[in-house]
Queue: 2 jobs
Job 1
Amino acid sequence: MNIREANIRDYDILVALWRSAGLPFKPHGRDMRENIEKELARGCAHFLIAEEKGRPVGTILVTHDGRKGWINRLAVIPAYRNRGIARMLVEKGEKILDDAGIGIIACLIEDYNRESLAVFQKLGYIDFKGMHYLTKRQHPEV
Ligand SMILES: CC(C)(COP(=O)(O)OP(=O)(O)OC[C@H]1O[C@@H](n2cnc3c(N)ncnc32)[C@H](O)[C@@H]1OP(=O)(O)O)[C@@H](O)C(=O)NCCC(=O)NCCS
């Protein structure tokens, strides 16, 4: 298993991985090729791709704002699940954030996604009770 940093030339691979894992994403908003290109150029986003014998099988997005780290878009294609690939991706993402001096990592999990909640809890993440997630959006697809 090899985990590498993606660049914009990997855009179609990332989209294929999200689709194959059944992960919702925003193809007309922040996940548009142009927007991901800009995000990468800003230098605080790391899209990682896990490859098994050259085949892309999983991905994660790791970002930080200088204060807090975020893990997003963790996805492993169905045929490769339960082999520790998500764990490896998260640990690699945590190392990137640790190296950047970031001591707190957060992730947002939709309420229906009990599976993902269970996975993150296994990986040491604690459900923070009593918090609301508020956003302000330029448009619904952003
Ligand atoms: C969530 C997902 C990334 C997990 O990938 P994975 O490679 O199968 O996970 P791993 O094999 O690394 O498992 C990590 C830990 O979670 C546990 N785990 C895996 N799937 C689980 C499940 N469905 N329910 C409960 N625990 C689970 C594993 O046992 C392991 O714990 P352990 O190391 O203590 O044994 C994968 O199921 C997926 O792509 N789901 C769809 C997309 C998604 O919902 N992503 C999350 C968005 S927030």
Job 2
Amino acid sequence: MKILRTSLAAAGVLALSLVAAQAGKPAYEIVDGGIAVSLTGKPGDPAAGKVTLADRKLGNCLACHVVSDLSDLPFHGEVAPPLDGVADRYDEAQLRLLLVDSKKVFEGTIMPAFYKSEGFNRPLDKFEGKSILTADQVEDVLAYLLTLKEQ
Ligand code: HEC
């Protein structure tokens, strides 16, 4: 009986993940202060991530953060720590969660949550298209952040 219930639960989770994926918003799971699994199931593109990070209508990260690698671009804000060497300070899972839902990492931060979803408890279509970045863009920005190591 217990085994049956467990496998029914597993099937339920699988079905929900499929629904979530179909709604255009892949599910994510927060484990140990991070999201270990790529939102898209594949690694992002660091070159595309660099563009998304600097785009004022997308990441707009330079409004608050300095990135020395992008020092040819104007408008670097200083309200937040520089992103230089950030790949030495955090691992991939931590950075993914920070991009998805910054308040899970820094309580009360002014940094926007770029891909927050309320999980399975609410109608998924309500959140469709509501995130600032798409799953692909989050993975691209993450791939770029992982290149930012101190020399
Ligand atoms: C509105 C300002 C703002 C924007 C926009 C913003 N951030 Fe942040 N970010 C912060 C602040 C402030 C912190 C420091 C945490 C805190 O104290 O709130 C932070 C922290 C971080 C950290 C951890 C840095 C460290 O060394 O501890 C990373 C990584 C980061 N942000 C990446 C990004 C990326 C990538 C983007 C764009 C997709 C972005 N942030 C957009 C304000 C911002």
